[in-house]
Write a structure and sequence with these properties.
heterodimer, A: 111 residues, mainly beta, 58% strand, globular, B: 112 residues, 6-stranded mixed sheet
Chain lengths: 111, 112
């Protein structure tokens, strides 16, 4: 069975500090990977997607970057956090870009 | 561009009430349509998927019908339970695009 693990579960960071969020998928080779951002109680905004190792496509510009260093790993990062980065970050995988399987998310609070 | 509209931000019901959550979409072709459900503290999970080949999806007592004429994909359930409290998202994908188009979500609150 496939599993998706996101880390950390929650982060409290200062404005201007760096950030790195991670996501690992086990039990599925060559998945499509996605990063989403969700404001509290809000809709889902796709940030990035990747269909293969080393290739990441950006969907929106939010002063964030993503990388896929391994087939089963997806990293979201920034060198300088903004207040507007607060929210819920979700990693997801799919086999055929249709049905998405989401992780439990990381809650980020920027103060 | 493609869009999905959920006009109800929140729906409050009592147990055993009938549920109806509105969703309409706008695309140039016939997309695949989804309902996802997000429970507190979790990521969304697929509830229903409907393609142009099968007009109705049914899962866990929920059903949604793909209506090309009115471009709607409303979610219904005959009798809700407290455990159905969650946020429900309507979404579509068209062709080989790697981007799901999401509605704004409808929060369902069930009064015990």
């Amino acid at each position: 069975a496939q599993t998706i693990h996101q880390w950390p579960v929650a982060e409290i960071k200062a404005v201007g500090s760096p950030l790195s969020l991670g996501c690992t998928i086990k039990g599925k080779s060559s998945p499509n990977l996605y990063w989403y951002w969700q404001a509290t109680g809000g809709t889902l905004q796709q940030l990035f997607y990747s269909i293969t190792v080393g290739q990441v496509e950006s969907v929106v510009q939010l002063n964030l970057s993503a990388s896929r260093p391994k087939d089963d790993q997806f990293i979201l990062s920034t060198e300088k956090l903004l207040l507007s980065h607060s929210g819920f970050y979700l990693c997801a995988w799919s086999h055929s870009h249709e049905r998405l399987f989401f992780g439990h998310g990381t809650k980020l609070s920027v103060l | 561009g493609d869009s999905v509209t959920q006009k109800q931000g929140q729906v409050t019901l009592s147990e055993d009430d009938f549920l109806f959550i509105n969703c309409t979409y706008s695309t140039t072709t016939y997309p695949t349509l989804f309902w996802y459900v997000q429970y507190p503290g979790q990521g969304p999970q697929l509830l229903l998927k409907v393609t142009t080949a099968n007009n109705k999806g049914i899962s866990r007592g929920f059903e949604a019908t793909y209506d090309k004429g009115t471009t709607s994909f409303h979610l219904q359930k005959a009798s809700v339970q407290e455990s159905d409290s969650a946020v429900y998202f309507c979404a579509l994908v068209e062709g080989s695009n790697y981007q799901l188009i999401w509605g704004s979500g409808t929060k369902l609150i069930i009064k015990p």
